[in-house]
Amino acid sequence: MLWVVGLMIVGIVGFILMLATLIGALVSMMARAGRALIGLPGGPSPRTCGRCRHVNAAHARYCAQCGQALGAERETTDVHG
Ligand SMILES: [Zn+2]
Hints:
Number of domains: 2
Shape: rod-shaped
Order of helices and strands: HEEH
Bound molecules: zinc ion
Strand order of the largest sheet: 1-2
Number of helices: 2
Helix content: 40-55%
Distance between the termini: 95 Å
Number of strands: 2
């Protein structure tokens, strides 16, 4: 009768290993979805005006309050002289 117990143990261990693989795949998928939902660091964030401290949209190029160029230090690369 020992072989029956051996077969059962092998079957149960195989089943558990299969479950662990499935759960691992699910957890990795959920982690990716959660990060996408929360928002990755470096994503679009509100732009605060340096002059009047007005909070503008992430895609705004100029302040809606005072017209100050947002992120001008990077975009205006024109050389004088
Ligand atoms: Zn402003």
